[in-house]
Amino acid sequence: MSVDFWTYLIVGLSFSLYIGIAIWSRAGSTKEFYIAGGGVPSVANGMATAADWMSAASFISMAGLISFMGRDGAVYLMGWTGGYVLLAMMLAPYLRRFGKFTVPDFIGDRYYSKIARVVAVVCAIFISFTYVAGQMRGVGVVFSRFLGLEVELGVIVGMVIVFFYAVLGGMKGITYTQVAQYCVLIFAFMVPAIFISIMLTGNPIPQLGLGGEYVENGVKTGVSLLDKLDGLNQELGFKQYTSGQKSTIDVFFITLALMVGTAGLPHVIVRFYTVKRASAARSSALWALLFIAILYTTAPAVAVFARTNLLRTIPGTAYQASPEWFQNWEKAGLIAWVDKNKDGAIQYNGSGPAFHKVEGASNMTPQFFSEKKGESGERILKNAPTDSTNELYIDRDIMVLANPEIANLPNWVIGLIAAGGLAAALSTAAGLLLVISTSVAHDLVKKTFRPDISEKAELRTARLAAMGAVVIAGYFGINPPGFVAEVVAFAFGLAASTFFPAILLGIFSKRVNREGAVTGMIVGLLFTLGYIIYFKFISPDLNHAKNWFFGISPEGIGGIGMILNFIVTILVTAVTPRPPAEIAHLVDRVRLPRAAYGEENTAPIDH
């Protein structure tokens, strides 16, 4: 049976499952809409957290980035994994004991200020929309290739699916849908990884295959897989795969921004409110870490497998004899070949950029192609660079999705990878849209402008906000500011520079006041956002290490924004009045054991 048959079958079945779960778990109250009623079992919450956490950036783009960047791509692994541990161990249990629905709710109450709450809402919306743009981009990439739809139409289909179960089911529907999505995405990621690991190394465990011996035509070669890949890279003029190109300071700050940004992501933090008590928050965090580790320890192996297969099959191949997968991805607008030397063969080397840039864009999309065909039948790329001999231009986001086709795996595996990519993107998109809707309905309307609003009206407002958020998210998915993982990195930078200092100091310091926290968040947001906008949109031609502040890229500038936030918060706090006595008491109740107050460690704090 064909790839199209398997893709439609598996994607159709998975979508039917998601919609069925949404109908079954329809939210009937604001508590169910915001935090799934607060009674989700730890294992289920851990699985849902993992699906919420492992977005399209993790599933689709991370291994692709590592595949092209080599060792430098490890910043995403280190930052995201370390950040989740930081969140789970240091922040989540305390936030759960505080017992509020959202991060702006915590900041508004902890800093006893409506202004602080509004600033936190603005930050949450900025972060969430930046993050969700990457997810919708991932949806469009999958649909454009596997279902034969244009990227724009694919994004719209994804919007409709997310709209249905996010708006109807709220957090309750999203939680149980994400349990199903985790099962789909992890199965889809691991099956081709295991197949290819056996093909390239004879080892069925991808993590071990990464360091194993390279096998060619079923015969061991006596050369390690990484050495083989280094050799292929060098033969084609690329740097060794295992060597790095980024500066140490940039690697450090990207990792830092990703790590502390993770600890400030509102859609992940809210997951710890969906369990009954703080102890359940800890156990669900550990379950989530286990579920996340399965994919994250496999991603480097997938990156190596994909690049090895690409380099040993494509360079030097005549275009007319190129494999079917190559032409399929070319039709999807995510691979391009420019016959610069007119020999009819595909030359891929390190003499020039490995992706195409047009009018400041950082990713290839179909509008970059001419309607005409070349002499060999290839799609002609507009404004193709002429200053290098490299002829192949590849969108990084396809490497995981194309991997089964490159390795010539069975058609059902190719259909499965499409369903997995969609599950990863949609699960995180739903969580982000819920953050936006609850920030608007609960923190702006209920807690700021209309405290007398009824529960029914608040629930209706949340659903309307989710509808608007879906539409805006779709726009950013059609017009993305970069690669999936790159866009998501910006969201982490914004979270690092705004929420992390406010949350950390709010939990562990009784002295920090509203003036310090609000000023710090505004400074962190404006600095980080301004830096990103300047280098990515206003002056993309200057987006180079020699022009960056201390050589720190826009992906890593959130680390500097965080430091500025801390400094400004502490300085302003030092010259302004201390918080009220009840705030100091609140901090003690959040941080110290309940036994110190003669309370049972079961219900969240209500104040």
Present the secondary structure layout:
Layout: H1 3-24, H2 30-35, H3 42-53, H4 56-69, H5 74-98, H6 103-110, H7 114-146, H8 151-201, H9 206-209, E1 213-216, E2 219-224, H10 225-235, H11 248-262, H12 266-269, H13 278-296, H14 299-313, H15 324-331, E3 335-337, E4 369-373, E5 379-381, E6 392-394, H16 399-406, H17 411-449, H18 455-478, H19 484-508, H20 514-538, H21 557-574, H22 581-591
Antiparallel strand pairs: 1-2, 3-6, 4-5
Using only C-alpha atoms, the radius of gyration works out to 24 Å
- Major sheet details: 2 strands, antiparallel
Which second-level CATH architecture applies? Up-down Bundle
Q: Helix- and strand-based class?
A: mainly alpha
**First-to-last CA distance:** 61 Å
Approximate shape = globular
**What portion of residues is helical?**
55-70%
**Name of the CATH superfamily:** Sodium/glucose cotransporter
Our estimate of the beta-strand percent is: under 5%
CATH class: Mainly Alpha
Oligomer: single chain
Question: What string gives the helices and strands in order?
Answer: HHHHHHHHHEEHHHHHHEEEEHHHHHHH
Helical segment count:
22
Number of strands: 6
Strand order of the largest sheet: 1-2
Provide the domain count.
1
